[in-house]
Design a protein that fits this description.
binds S-adenosylmethionine, 7-stranded mixed sheet, disordered N terminus, 314 residues, alpha/beta, 12 helices, 7 strands
Length: 314
């Protein structure tokens, strides 16, 4: 399936497309939020199921994704867009009346990875940026120019599980003392490759570090936690939440969030008081099949969890 409408940038194949549609169980007159519009692959699927009374709210941090969303909204009055993090979805007045379904398809899109100028890829030389929103916060190069050795090592370890985190952090700080500023993805990838012990791993030695720096720069896990809380506030009873994760740190947060809200909460100080009712019911955990992974290698690490907002009000 083509993501369409993206102009000259590479397309993005939506992951677990049929499963997302089934998980959201789109009602023709419902209001849905796609918090990670990307190139709109999933959003267009939701639109195709909505009737004239339905609404689709879309968000993305990335101005290029929002440019595609703006065009879609121009063609279809049921669509509204907002540039920003889904962590702020509860601040969007259009979501105040409640949502029948919410999708977060986490991480980066193929166009972000494939366009060297975005600076996400160790395989393509470009400016060391990595921001989903290039107009907000520090770029990877700006952060690496001042972060302490310990901060860098902690980020590589926490968000990339990089066992050589200290060695890489030391190399970055030493490189900074030289004459050449660290400004390009290829410089960083080479620097990491030089200090990594030679192993038989098939993945590029910079894979984990690039992932870690990207997660840190974009506050991805903090946004996910805030986005899940906001989603719970805005979902109507019976509304569906579908979240696609691409690594274990994200999936753990989603899993624990759903588990935490899928049980009644007793107050230890008031043992005879009625428990707080559960707010979510876990419905599914789905991974792509072999055919999808063969057609779209990016789907390889995807895991989708689906939950339903219970009928009991908060
Ligand atoms: C995997 S892609 C989504 C692809 C989309 N489902 C499609 O079918 O085209 C992830 C998108 O979410 C955006 N994104 C990631 N985290 C975000 C956040 N916290 N708030 C808003 N957008 C975010 C990225 O900029 C990227 O465009």
């Amino acid at each position: 399936m083509s993501a369409g409408g993206a102009g000259a940038t590479p397309a993005h194949l939506p992951v677990l497309f049929a499963e997302v549609m089934e998980g959201l169980a789109v009602k023709a007159d419902g209001t849905y939020l796609d918090g990670t519009f990307g190139r709109g692959g999933h959003a267009r699927g939701v639109l195709a199921k909505l009737g004239p009374e339905g609404r689709l709210l879309v968000m993305d941090k990335d101005p290029e994704a929002i440019a595609v969303a703006t065009r879609l909204a121009g063609e279809d009055a049921r669509v509204a867009w907002r540039r920003g993090s889904f962590a702020d979805l509860a601040r969007w007045p259009l979501a105040d009346a409640g949502l029948d379904g919410i999708l977060f398809d986490l991480g980066v899109s193929s166009p972000q990875l494939d366009v060297a100028e975005r600076g996400f890829s160790f395989g393509k030389d470009g400016p060391l940026d990595m921001r989903m929103d290039p107009e907000s916060g520090e770029s990877a190069a700006q952060w690496l120019a001042h972060a302490s050795e310990k901060e860098i090592a902690d980020v590589l370890w926490m968000y990339g599980d990089e066992r050589q985190s200290r060695r890489i952090a030391r190399a970055i700080v030493q490189f900074r003392r030289g004459d050449t500023p660290l400004l390009r993805t290829a410089q960083l990838a080479e620097l990491i490759a030089q200090v990594m012990p030679r192993g038989d791993s098939k993945i590029h030695p910079a894979t984990r570090s690039f992932q870690a720096i990207r997660i840190f720069i974009n506050r991805e896990l903090l946004d996910l936690e805030a986005g899940l809380d906001a989603a719970l506030e805005r979902l109507k009873p019976g509304g569906r939440l579908a979240v696609i994760s691409f690594h274990s740190l994200e999936d753990r947060i989603v899993k624990q969030f759903i588990a935490q809200h899928s049980k009644e909460v007793y107050d230890r100080r008031a043992p005879f008081a009625a428990p707080q009712p559960m707010r979510l019911k876990a419905l599914a955990r789905i991974k792509p099949g072999a055919a999808e992974v063969a057609a779209n290698p990016r789907a390889r690490s995807a895991v989708m969890r689906v939950a339903e907002r219970t009928e009991v009000p908060a």
